[in-house]
Every structure is written in C-alpha cells, then in structure tokens.
Specification:
434 Repressor (Amino-terminal Domain), 2 domains, 4-stranded antiparallel sheet, 8 helices, 8 strands
Length: 237
C-alpha cells in the first residue's frame, strides 16, 4: 500500500471529504489530492510532506508513524537516479572475484605437507641416544560462548545495506527512537516487557534479538511492524 492510498483510506475512515479535511488542516485541497496520488512535488518538498502527513493523521485520529515509515521508504529512491541510489545505499552487493587455483601452488603445498609428515615421523620414531626429541604437545584451551541471560527483551539493529528508517517504542508506549540508521551503524534497545518496531526498509538491516541473530528481516523497501518480548508472547498466546 502506498502513502497516497493510506492517506485516502484514513480520510475516508474519518468520514471527511477532501474539502472538509482541507478546512480542518488548512492544507490546500489540491495539495491533499496530490498527496493521495503520491505526488509530493506540489507540497514544497519532503519536509513539508512529512508535516502534512502528521497534520492529516492527527485530524483523522490515527498514528502518523506508520504512514511516515511508508513515506521514508517510498520517497528515498525518488530524490536520486537509480545509479546514484545504488552507489549511496550499496543496495547491490559487489561480487567477490575469486582468483584461479594455481596447480603449481597446490603442488608446492602438497610437497611441503609430505616432507613435514616424513620429518615428523622420523623425530617421533627415533628411539636411540640420550637426546631423544620429545614430541611437542599443544594444549588447546576449549572456550565456548557464554549465554547471556535476559529478563526482558533486547533488540539490536545493525545497518548492513544502505539506509533505513526505524521507530522503536516500549511497553509503556514511549518512543525510544525514531529516525534513520545508516550502513555501519548499530543501535540497541531494551525493555522488561515489550519492544515494538516499525522498519521502513527491512532489507537494509540485520536483526538481533536477545543475542540471537535473526538475519535480514525482509526485502529492500519493505515496511515491517514487529514486536518482541514477554508481553508480545502473551499477546500471541
């Protein structure tokens, strides 16, 4: 669903015509109609469009965050050419060029391994003389990952493929964060009951919940709404 479709639906759900909405928001009716057609050029630019969306959502009695997330996801590609977008967001992964296998190199490695085995075997089996060479023993200290105990929920978002817009709220309804996360950035959020996420570009993020790597949660440009924590499990049950 596009931004324009969402705006049209919330207006109709509120029982308002374009003219009535224009009078209540003081936004020109022509601008409202353009927004509902996904035309954001006549409103004065992205900053004005975001303000209009918030104003319309407030008058219609709905939360603006979801529509704003759609707007960020939908309009990021509109400001630049496809070539510029791919360069800026690294939406395409550069293929790694593998060097061809050198048979000469493999032969040299194999000869070295054989020589090491023969020489090592001679050292181990040589029994005469007072200066016997003892076989070296390497002690390997086994260490394993230490599990981290979580009383609530911890969510880490890591930018891995360009730019995404995210909004995070907790069990009290308070917004912990609302903004952008770029490639190479990492943000962590905690709550004892619930974390609610709105992600504007799911294919740009790596999601880690309570230490478990869940990978990339969706596709490039996809808007997702997710919730994690004990309260979320209770709601699902």
């Amino acid at each position: 669903m596009s931004v324009g479709t969402s705006l049209r639906e919330v207006r109709k759900t509120a029982g308002l015509s374009s003219d009535e909405l224009s009078k209540r928001t003081r936004i020109p009716e022509s601008v409202i109609e353009d927004l509902e057609r996904d035309n954001f050029n006549t409103c004065g630019g992205p900053a004005y469009a975001r303000g209009h969306i918030r104003n319309i959502a407030r008058v219609c009695g709905v939360d603006a965050e979801t529509i704003l997330a759609q707007f960020e996801s939908q309009t990021i590609p509109l400001n630049k050419s496809i070539r510029e977008l791919l360069n800026d967001t690294n939406a395409t992964t550069t293929k790694k060029v593998r060097k061809p296998i050198s048979w000469k190199g493999l032969t040299g490695v194999a000869a070295g391994v054989v020589a090491l085995l023969v020489f090592g075997g001679a050292l181990i089996t040589s029994g005469g003389g007072e200066e016997n060479i003892a076989t070296p023993q390497t002690q390997v200290e086994e260490t394993g990952p230490v599990a981290k105990k979580f009383d609530g929920v911890e969510v880490t978002l890591r930018g891995i493929n360009g730019l995404s817009w995210i909004a995070i709220s907790d069990s009290s309804g308070a917004t912990q964060y609302s903004g952008r996360i770029r490639q190479g950035e990492e943000l962590t959020f905690n709550d004892d009951q619930l974390l609610y996420l709105v992600i504007g570009n799911a294919g740009a993020l790596q999601l880690i919940v309570n230490g478990e790597d869940l990978g990339v949660p969706g596709k490039v440009g996809e808007v997702l709404r997710l919730e994690f924590g004990p309260q979320a499990l209770a709601n699902q049950g």
